[in-house]
Design a protein that fits this description.
The protein has 161 residues and is α+β, with helices and mostly antiparallel strands. The protein has 5 helices and 5 strands. Strands 1-2-3 form a 3-stranded antiparallel sheet, covered by helices on one side. The chain has a two-stranded parallel sheet with strand order 4-5. Helix 3 crosses helix 4.
Length: 161
């Protein structure tokens, strides 16, 4: 399913158990969707699409569509679950996320896991900043990350752009 947002198009994918992924058009690490078929009336796609629309209309702060991890290492999944608990309007750093995940020396691995998050916006990887609040890394592009942070009221040092 495709969804148009103020920050560009997004592709949503789901299975019978929930949302498999949500990626901005042109995002790094997005799977090759060649051969995927468009469907309508799939419950989780419809729910996730409605939630994305509500988020961008400032009517939603917490996504409730269940997520299904079809890929990712155990470490990546731990990081994605930690990200999913980060509230709207609150940011963290890659270092703090590494500490919270019990791997304080794995900052680069945390960054790689954050970058491979398959549920853009729904699992708020855009809320993760570099040291001293610097704006770094986002598979959907730094312009989108900055826009998402601004819309959530999070101030980021854009000098790192």
């Amino acid at each position: 399913m495709k969804r148009v947002t103020p920050l560009g198009g997004m592709r949503l994918a789901a299975c019978d158990e929930g949302l498999v992924g949500l990626w901005f058009d042109g995002a790094a690490h997005a799977p090759d969707a060649h051969g995927w078929r468009e469907v309508s009336g799939q419950h989780w796609l419809d729910q996730a699409g409605a939630e994305v629309t509500a988020y961008f209309a400032d009517d939603l702060r917490v996504f409730t569509t269940p997520r299904v991890a079809l890929w990712g290492t155990d470490f990546q999944r731990r990081i994605w679950e930690a990200l999913a608990t980060l509230p709207f309007g609150v940011s963290t750093t890659y270092g703090a996320l590494a500490v919270a995940a019990g791997s304080p020396l794995a900052v680069r691995a945390v960054g790689a896991a954050v970058g491979r998050n398959p549920w853009s916006v729904v699992v708020p990887c855009h809320r993760v900043l570099g040291a001293q609040g610097r704006l770094t890394g986002y598979a959907g592009g730094l312009d989108r990350k900055h826009a998402l942070l601004v819309r959530e009221g999070i101030v980021a040092d854009i000098l790192a752009r």
